[in-house]
What we know:
The structure is a single chain. The chain is of the alpha/beta class and 270 residues long. The chain has one domain (3-160, 177-201, 261-268): Vaccinia Virus protein VP39 (Rossmann fold), CATH 3.40.50.150. It is built from eleven helices and seven strands. It has a seven-stranded mixed beta sheet. α1 (3-21) runs parallel beside α5 (85-97). The two termini are 29 Å apart. The relative contact order is 0.15.
Amino acid sequence: xxxxKEELLRREEEFHDQWADSIDIQEVKVDExxxxxxxxxxxxxxxxxxxxxxxxxxxxxxxxxxxxxxFAKQGAHAVATDLSGGMLRVVEKLASLHGxxxxxxxxxxxxxxxxxxxxxxxxxxxxxxxVDIEKCLIEVNRxxxxxxKFMSWDPLAHNPAINIYxxxxxxxxxxxxxxxxxxxxxxxxxxxxxxxxxxxxxFTLWIFIRFKFIEKIDPNKERYWKKIINEHQRLExxxxxxxxFDRIFxxxxxxxxxxxxxxxxxxxxx
Length: 270
C-alpha cells in the first residue's frame, strides 16, 4: 500500500475514532435510522431486500452500527466492519443494549477480510464516497454468494445547495470525501448483472434550508443528516408533503435525479 493511501486510511480512522468517543448509545436511533419517514434511502433498500431472517449480512463502514443491529433484530446474522476500532466498540454496546448479537471485525472496504462467496447481502451506508469505489465494488462482488445483493446509499455530487452545505460543515466531514458523480453509475453496471437505483431528497432539501436559515442550526455543531432522523416526528408532515412533490417531479423529469442529495443502489451479483 502506498504512503498516500496509508495516510488517507489513518485520517479516516482517526476522524471516526474521535466521533465514536462522542456517541451516547442511549441516543442512537436504530429503528428510526432504517424506517423513519426521513430515511427514504433505507426504506427503499428494505423494500428491495425482502425477508432477511437467517441471511448472512455484511455491513461495510458500519459507523455506530444502526443498520447491523436492525438486521440482527430482524433475525439476520449481521457482521459489522469498520476501519475505526472505536466505532466497532460502539456497535458492540449498541447490540447489547438491544439484546442482539452482531459480529464485529476491523476491515477496510477496499480489502474486505472475508473469503469469497461469504454473504447473502452486503450493505453500505454513506461509505462509497470515502473509498475507491471500483475497488470496493470488486471486493463486494467477490464476497457475495451467487445471486447475492449489494445494497448501498451515498450522496451525489451535483446539487448546488448541498455543495454549499458541504463547504460549511467541514468540521463534521473528512477531507477525503468524494460524493458520487452521475457518470460513476456505470461502475455498478460494469460489476453486477442487475442494477437499480432510487434518488431521494430534491424538494425535500427545503428541510436543510430551514435548519440553516430559519432555525439557525450550525452545521458544524449538529450533523443535519443525523438531525433529520432524530427529529423525524417533528419533520414528518413537511417531509411527506415534499416527498410527494419529489416523486411526481422526478417521475416527469428524471433528468433532475442527478441533482438529488442521495442515491440508493440494489445490485445483484452476476
